Amino acid sequence: MDATSRRNGARTPLPTITGLAELAELVSEHDRLYLRYSDGPDQDRRSVSKDYESGLELPGLSVTVLTPEPWWTRPPEDWLARQVRKYASLVEEDPERCGWVLQGRTVAHGPDHEPLLDDVRPIAYLSEDVMEEALDRYRRDFEAGRRPTDP
C-alpha cells in the first residue's frame, strides 16, 4: 500500500489506478473522463475552484481532460502521461492532495481553457506508481518545454 492509498483510506472508497495501461483501459470504457488534483472528492463536494490571479470563484471544479482527442494518433498512454504530469506538482507540493479520476458535466471553461465541471461523479484515485510511470514516460517520449520557434 503506497502513501496515496493510505491517504485515500479515510476518503470515499474508490478503486486505485496503479499504471498507465490500467488508466487507459478505464478511459476507454467511459465517454469522457477527467483528472483533478485536490484534497479529494469528499472535500470538493464542499468547496469551489478559484481563479487565484483574479480572486474569482469558478462555476465548477477545474479539471484536466483524460480522454484523448480524436486527432491524437499516438498511444493513449502517451496522452495520459502528458495529462497526468500537467499539474502533478499540486500533489508533490502538498501531501494531503491526491489525483482522482471523475466524470461530470462541463459548465464553463476556466482562465487556462480547462473544463469546469459540476454534477461530479468520482471514479478512481491515482496511485503514486502511476504518477511516477507517467513522469518516466513523459520524460522519455516527449520534448518537454519545446516551443514552436525551436528548430
From TrEMBL:
<dbReference type="Pfam" id="PF19593">
    <property type="entry name" value="DUF6098"/>
</dbReference>
<protein>
    <submittedName>
        <fullName>Uncharacterized protein</fullName>
    </submittedName>
</protein>
<dbReference type="InterPro" id="IPR046080">
    <property type="entry name" value="DUF6098"/>
</dbReference>
